[in-house]
Amino acid sequence: MENKIIKINKKYSYRNLKNDLEYLKYEYLDNLVIGDIGESILGEKIKFLKIGKGDKKIFINASHHANEWMTSLIIMIFVEKYLNLIKNNQNYKGFNIEELFNKVSFYVVPMVNPDGVDFCVGERRISELEKYKELLEPYVNSLDSWKANIRGVDLNLNYPAGWEQAKINKAKIGVIKPNYRDYVGPNYLSEKETIAMYKFSMIHKFDLSISLHSQGQEIYWNYQNIEVPRAKEIGKKFAKASGYLLTEPVFNSSFAGYKDWFIKEFQKPAYTIEIGKGEEGKSLKLENAIKVYQEVEEIFFIAMEEI
């Protein structure tokens, strides 16, 4: 069953995402809800979609980091695959698709950081913005090192879970102002994108969340010493299906992320999944997209089955 809407022939921009959502809405109108959770700094709608009608709620988010745009592409490949299976009433790899659809509401924010992604994939309208020119200009020849949003804030260091410690940790490596990566912001939830994610999460109180990042083929499952029932057990199943390593983040990377805040706030399972393997601090190569997708595909089905 080949995907016919989500293509893997170019870097995945916000424009690609919007176009794909329009086509998916047309093709799968009965089983797909599309909306917005808020806006980016530049006023782009941060899109969400929902599949399924169950009481259990799972949340997948991608592209907190601009140069990790591959995560948006990967989850959108899965979205089309899942919708296709539902439409054709087909089970898949031992998963009962109709049962999952009826049991679980599957929410996705495929691109948390649309402005940053568009800068990173080379959309000229971003790099030519006068307001951010001084910040962005040094990176126009090394776009795929850019992780932050358009204001130079690392969105996955901007949540209220040990934010003060994250600030100390990053100051130790010299990052105390807007930067291409690792700047925690002037305060937690200082950015429109993280405020939107915070509010959306507080409304829905999801039963499980997965934040897709790259790279390293690793799964992070905990925050501090908070005991979350079944979190490690489910994480082990993710690891077995993907071949990824279930592990714990190092101290300097274990604060102020979405996963950290979700666990602290809701005491429910949350994971950061570092997809693929590539060059540290750079985007994954487009030609590896299918391989990376195949590594993680079953994780999303397992999450729905286990919750």
Q: What is the average of the pLDDT values?
A: 96
Taking the alpha carbons of the first and last residues, their distance comes to 27 Å
Q: What percent of the residues sit in helical stretches (DSSP H or I)?
A: 25-40%
In the CATH hierarchy, the architecture is: 3-Layer(aba) Sandwich
Structural class: alpha/beta
- The main sheet orders its strands as 1-2-4-3-5-8-6-7
CATH superfamily: Zn peptidases
Q: Ranges with pLDDT <50 over ≥5 residues?
A: none
| CA-atom Rg in angstroms | 18 Å
Beta-strand percentage? 5-15%
Number of domains: 1
Q: What CATH first level would be assigned?
A: Alpha Beta
The fold-level CATH name is: Aminopeptidase
Question: What global shape is seen?
Answer: globular
Describe this structure in words.
With 307 residues, the chain is an alpha/beta fold. It has one domain (14-306): Zn peptidases (Aminopeptidase), CATH 3.40.630. It has helices spanning 14-27, 70-87, 97-103, 114-120, 124-127, 133-136, 163-172, 192-204, 231-242, 258-266, 289-306; strands at 33-39, 45-51, 56-62, 104-109, 208-214, 218-220, 245-247, 270-275. An eight-stranded mixed beta sheet has the order 1-2-4-3-5-8-6-7, with helices on both faces. Strand 1 and strand 2 form a beta hairpin. Helix 2 (70-87) packs across helix 11 (289-306) and helix 9 runs antiparallel to helix 11. The protein is globular, with a radius of gyration of 18 Å. The model has no long low-confidence stretch (mean pLDDT 96).
Question: What's this, in brief?
Answer:
The protein has 307 residues and is of the alpha/beta class. 38% of the residues lie in helices and 15% in strands. It has 11 helices and 8 strands.
